[in-house]
Specification:
The chain is built from one helix and eight strands, in the order H-E-E-E-E-E-E-E-E. It has one helix at about 1-15, and strands at about 30-50, 55-70, 70-80, 85-90, 100-115, 120-125, 140-165, 170-175.
Length: about 180
């Protein structure tokens, strides 16, 4: 729960311009999965995330306006003095829909069955306007859509931020050699 609160506070501060949207990533990517994701507004462009050691990680920055997810699973693996630990967060499903506003995911990949409404592929990243505040550098490749729906979402990501997360049925589990999302 403290991590969820921290993400919410950071997203609020970013929205108010008090905190830059970029930060050093941990150096460990994590899994994100959902049965279904839908949203009004998607903006995306390529960028490089940096970990604290300076290593670069190329990602597709996915800006998602008002996200609704049938369920969510997030899992990260870490080596500790007692062995390999899996940190796993789940929510939604029978407890109800998960929602997030201004969700930003820095993803290595994303798979699923997708539908995009009013898609614009190849738009200059600096002119993206479907998700407020999600714009890349001038001359860089971008894409956007007025609305999206993706079933069977599976992604490896380096970071996720957003404002006003609503995680019905939240469960956090930390276990040795635990099961990840996929």
């Amino acid at each position: 729960m403290p991590a969820v609160l921290a993400v919410g506070v950071m997203a609020s501060m970013m929205g108010e311009g008090a905190l830059a949207a970029s930060f050093a990533v941990s150096g460990t990517s994590f899994q994100v999965a959902s049965g279904k994701l839908s949203s009004q507004g998607l903006s995306s462009y390529v960028q490089t995330d940096r970990s604290a050691d300076g290593r670069g990680h190329p990602v597709a920055l996915l800006g998602i306006g008002d996200a609704r997810l049938s369920d969510i699973c997030q899992a990260a693996e870490a080596e500790t003095p007692v062995g390999k630990v899996v940190f796993k967060l789940t929510a939604g499903g029978k407890a109800g829909e998960v929602t997030a506003s201004s969700l930003i995911i820095d993803a290595e990949d994303l798979v699923g069955d997708a539908r995009f409404g009013t898609a614009e592929i190849g738009r200059d990243a600096s002119t993206l306007d479907q998700v407020p505040g999600v714009q890349g550098e001038a001359g860089k490749f971008g894409l956007q859509a007025g609305d999206i729906e993706v079933a069977g979402v599976k992604s490896h990501a380096w970071s996720a931020t957003g404002g006003n997360f609503r995680l019905k049925g939240l469960s956090i589990d930390v276990s040795l050699d635990g099961k990840k999302c996929f």
